[in-house]
Protein 1
Amino acid sequence: MKIVYVYPKFTALAGTERVLIDKMNYLAEHEDVEVVALTYEQGNRPFVYSLSPKVLHIDLDVSFDSLKKYNQIIRVLKVKQFNILLRRKFNQLMNSLSPDIVISTTFHANIASIIANCPTSFAKILESHIDKRYIHCNDPENRQHLFNYLWSVYNMLKLSHNARKYDVLVSLHQSDANDWAGYLKTRVITNIIHLNTSGRYSSLESKRVIFAGRFAKQKGIPDLFEIWRMVAAHHADWCLELYGNGNVSELPYTEEEREKLNIHVYPANPNIFDKYLDSSLFVLTSIYEPFGLVMLEAMSCGLPVIAFDCPHGPAQIITDGVDGFLIKDRNHSFFAEKLCALIESDELRKKMGHAAVLSSQRYAAPQIMAEWMNLFKELMNKKTI
């Protein structure tokens, strides 16, 4: 069985990149599968996470990133040229490789369209890593600028049209699967999680609370800072550390104000597990979260998690009152209250931390990848009928 994963580039310290690389590595190392990682904007840059030597990497060298130097009108014209080039290179490669299955994501409408209309015959899978209601023109951030909004409307229309040509869409939860069900068959398979395998767990004794994720509107960081202001009033000796990518200048409060509140901001860290192990609690204040793998990463290190009960990931992961707390209605005061309760009780913190480790094992690679292998075999059987 030959499987091709298509993604523009693996250069960002982000969740989708981590998940896709982990899945490719697992298939190449544990299954009788030939895996190809196909990019088109990677160039000579290294993969952000280690790729198994058993995975064949091919880059088509069509860098849409290079178009950022042009104004918007010229960029639109050149995007069309680049898409034609990408389509030609992709079709030639598929004809040469003759893959059994090709997998892409709903993030990138252009490559999803190219895969959907490729003349070579293979099974096609779309992966939904962000709910349909939050991608392209449904993303609130794309509504802030007219050009971005119009472009995202076009991409959503293109994606919706071409989704019908895929064999199946795999979503992270049933609600998103239901949203796509009018276009094509759907299947729910949760993410494979890169769990802590060090054999070490947090002592839960450091006075450190950690957040990991993009510094984007979706993550609700202004809410987190307001919550921490309440916590810091009672526990000034504790600190909040944030690790992520994004524009730090757009974060709430000045650097001086953050310092007074014992809030420290750092770039995304490739060794984030070391930071989890040196922390005592994990917090997430997302407005929406299709899954939230950082929660499970932290839980596998023994950290209780506190998160808003936003659509839809946290409720899938956290058992309220057992391995963490789910906070409804974006209630800042209640979030701060639960955070203080865990800060003030070593016994509760350690009890929940132990439960968090056990809970995280539900998402270990063998269980999740067995579901993927069943899907692959179904598609192969369908192909031979």
Note: The chain has a mean pLDDT of 93.
Protein 2
Amino acid sequence: MQPSSSERIAVIDVIRAIALFGIVIAHSGMAYLAGPQPSPDFGIFTGADQFVDELVRVMATGKFFSIFSFLFGLSFAIQLQRAQQKGKGFSLRFIWRLAVLFLIGFVHNAFFSGDILVVYALLGLFLIPLRRVSPRVLVPISLLLIFNVPGITSALIKSYAPPPTAVEQQMGLERAKQFAITAKRQASIKQSGTIADVVRMNVTESLFQKVSFQIITGRLWITFGFFLLGMCAGKANLFQRSKEHETFFRRLAIASGIAALVTTVLTVLYPAAMILTSADHLAAYFVLCVQNVTLAAFFAACTTLLYWRQFAGGLLNGLAAMGKMGLTTYLSQTAIGLIIFYGFGFGLLGRTGVATCTAIGVGIYIAQIFAAQWWMRRFSQGPVEWLWRTLTYLKPQPIVQPKTTMA
């Protein structure tokens, strides 16, 4: 069944809201540092901090950004379908839409170096030439990317290279020393610098670090892999409820749940290192990649199945409002987080443990649930979504919910 041009698939909004929970937890747990840690035990003051830090690492970090990326590709496919149903052009409008998103993301990045919108806007361009490629071709490619096969293959090749010379080892030590100095300086700016100091750092050196991080960790093609997978799911109308799709998600939940359980245990026992210099490091990193993907799939599948069983109401249905204004929620999380943690606000960064920071993130999320419900009862979209749509069409878009009258 093809969705109508006006139909909104509510379960997608709910999944987006779930993803936003993981994102605020991952960011707040590190006090919105969004950069290299100034010390290995940063934010660890008590045993509770150590426990929560490990819990966030294992259960949240890397998982919910994956869902968020998947939903971006899914939304692309839905927009494409609806444009085709209306007989309207798509590519040029979508390119301009991405240009506006890039502008929003660049402003966001100026204040918070952990911004992902700039990356989404640039990678989204590559979806356009691939929109007519068969899912039979795209799904295998997407799986190769989301499991970071390119990065693991590159690291494997390097592991067979001759050992570094004494000069190369010394250069490596110097780079590590400089990296540590930079990490402490950047954290200090976020802890005690002015807004101008933070912006100046984020649009220069931190922007370069973002690009390096995306490439070195493989996050760049992992993100695009989820874009492709989401686009394929959208083409298949996978989130339109049917017996066939319910069966698919049940099987996905079981398979991904088993794989996630096994890899989560292995991830706890054998944490992955950022620098892959041995076969053990490669194996641990690959397990982490599998755990990220399968746990994200398990979360999404279970959310979908649960939602389909309480379509008319319940807790999950109450999250839909947040998902409808996901961009506003994402950006407001940053605004609140920076005010709480950075030096130009309450300055808790570096002074508060991971456990307390994570609890603050939970509080932010709960407040946003009620704020989103209040807003969506009065308006048809979030304020940033309205701005994005208005700039996309270059004319003001309706936002106030029409009043209903009794017959």
Note: Confidence is low (pLDDT under 50) at residues 1-6.
Protein 3
Amino acid sequence: MSQLTVLIYTDDVEFAHMVVARWQTERTVPTFLISSDSSWEQDKDVKYDLAIVGPLHSDDPVAAFKKIDMQGRPGVYVTSRATTGLAVRNANPRVLVLNDYEGWVNAVVLLAGEALRRVDATNRAKKAEQSVSAAQRHALLGKYMLDMRHNLNNALTSIMGNSELLLLEPGKVSADVREQIETIHSMSMRMHEIIQRFSSLETEMQFAERQSHREMPISMHSFVSGD
């Protein structure tokens, strides 16, 4: 699981210390941001993936959740009062409400840890979708370049042919113009080499694809037979 950040929002320092200390015993430990009503203004720009809200001096957890701006992120609220727990649940359906009973810290770490694993899985899925989308765009661009190489070759052949004809008649152009024509011819040759490399890469990729199709049945057979 990638490194994620947990916001612990409370005015009770002991509450925050208990959650952090308990989480330190787990195999995977996130980064913690501990904040409160009085310090939130300087912390509000920090990104977090999950919020744990504990005891507050204002005793208004609904306002606290609005203040930290959940934006669809999961959260856990620990309370000893059923009325405030119900108000938070109604205002924030994604927030898990836990009663402040003996052993609550274990439940917080268990539930929050599971929520973070889901966040991590969602993030990975989004990155995979972005990678697939980028690969599709690159593939489309590559296909277009391969489809256009013949037209480019024809244009380059014309440019190189005409520049060579001009270079064969040095008396018709000045030295400066001749130098410019030589540059045009040289750059045309370089572009031609690049296009030829596209063709070479296509051939290599087609060969590698054919080889992978040939080897796949053998690999599957070895796996099934235990060889």
Note: DSSP finds six helices and five strands in the chain.
Protein 4
Amino acid sequence: MRSDWKMTPLPDLLSFIVDNRGKTVPTSDKGRKLIATNCVRNDTLYPVYEKVRYLSEETYKTWFRSHPIPGDILFVNKGTPGRVCMVPNPVDFCIAQDMIAFRTNKRMYNKFLFAVLRSPYIQKQIYNTNVGDVIPHFKKSFLDQLLIPEPDMETQKEIGDIYFSLSSKIDLNNKINANLEAQAQAIFKSWFVDFEPFQDGEFVDSELGMIPKGWRVGRFTDIADVLGGGTPKTGNSSYWNGNVPFFTPKDVNGVYTLTTEKYLSDEGIRNCNSQLYPINTVFITARGTVGKIALAGVYMAMNQSCYALKGKDGYTQLFIYGIAQMVVESLCHKSSGAVFNAIVTRDFDSEYIVIPDKDIVTKYQDNVEPVFNLILNNAKQSRTLAAIRDSLLPKLMSGEIEVPLEG
């Protein structure tokens, strides 16, 4: 941190704190979105809508003390304290337990504070101030202990806008990829659920209803091998901090996974039960957070809480990716909507699916492969932008790089 910057307790730079903690909000089946801490992540600009709940309009108007407005900064204070996201415009959600929102005053540029709160400098402060061994908690009274750099407003805007613009491009790529994946899913459904391209052909009856002639009903494991992963058997430090991404349930973020929380060394791979899986391997999380699906964006290993799906002769990985989503949805439906504790290999063997001719699978691959290539390229660009942003921020804050940037 630059020595000539004033350090100010965070509350002195805020005009308001949105704080609805203290009691549990009543929810309903539909209505306004209520986000939880899992929706706030340090790798997205705005909250993601994952396992959201809903509340009635009456609850929205009467239960809360206040609501976030565009430009506020969401701050998780329980579970994984310190995760922050910007509040978008328009605001289409509410916050209640385990998070608050900061509204800056005239001394602090909100995008600069957003960048500072995500910086290693502040994240370390937050981590060191947490209390609670089982569920970490950052008390509101601790906010005074967070000392925020307060350069002149011009410098705040330069740094804040740089960080925000890079984050915005990543956010745009994520939205484009979500749209592209929706297109790919629509094509898959059209071909292999509704059979729309084959309506002029002959259909035959089967255990799963009418299907195109020449297709058959079989087990999921007829077209894909279900492979396991593993973790090195000891805690030997030489097994880690290498260059091999090690996929775990925490690493699902979008269609493709390119980076992971942990990396194995070559020695770690040799002492691990996991194979080194190639690009487009389908991963399914099987324990803890169950049923999430991702494609490998680079060669990577995998831990024992996941399965890798590898298409058998002629059944391509992108086809397996589409079928896998149907299989997981079926397994969840059979469990009456309950959250899985685990998926085991025999679950896949019990799933019956409609299996098309291999030439149809090849034609499908030809149609969707360009879409998935675009998704992968966007994901790679976002990874590069995130690396630039996250390496640039400490240098801007330390004075190693001056603002405004030249060029």
Note: The domain at 6-151 is CATH 3.90.220.20 (Adenine-n6-DNA-methyltransferase TaqI; Chain A, domain 2).
